[in-house]
Specification:
Layout: H1 2-8, H2 16-28, E1 32-38, E2 44-55, E3 60-70, H3 79-93, E4 96-101, H4 108-116
Parallel strand pairs: 3-4
Antiparallel strand pairs: 1-2, 2-3
């Protein structure tokens, strides 16, 4: 998984133990879901995660895709769409009325992928570092 995360965030120094702790919490959480795709050698080639929350704006549950990663060597073969559809099914099962994600400005190909899969760009994301 770390290999995939490094492809998604090549400029980021990943704290492996912190990533492992967060991943284990996600696996134990009722409000999160994860899927991993592997090749025949048990090597991760795709990953998607979802966080669900009660949301006043939706007056229902809202799903947020936290990560969607497909190994660069496996782009263009439909794996991203399979992972996306699998996590959308989970969001529907958990009564989410909307699913969202954020994507950095420079990820133009990712934006095209999401638009082909029915997502619309409807907002800016604002964030503030707290540590």
């Amino acid at each position: 998984m770390l290999r995939l995360l490094r492809q998604l965030w090549p400029e980021k120094q990943l704290d492996e133990s912190a990533v492992k702790r967060v991943f284990e919490r996600a696996l134990d959480s009722e409000s999160q879901a994860c899927f991993c795709a592997d090749n025949n050698n048990d090597q991760a080639i795709g990953f998607v995660s979802l966080t669900m929350k009660n949301n006043l704006w939706q007056a229902a549950n809202l799903g947020h895709i936290d990560e969607l990663i497909v190994d660069q060597a496996h782009h263009g073969h439909g794996l991203g769409s399979e992972l996306l559809n699998a996590i959308i099914d989970v969001a529907k099962e958990r009564h989410c009325t909307r699913i969202e994600l954020d994507s950095a400005f420079h990820r133009k190909k990712a934006h095209q992928f999401y638009e082909r899969n029915g997502f619309e760009n409807r907002a800016y994301l604002f964030s503030k570092r707290l540590t």
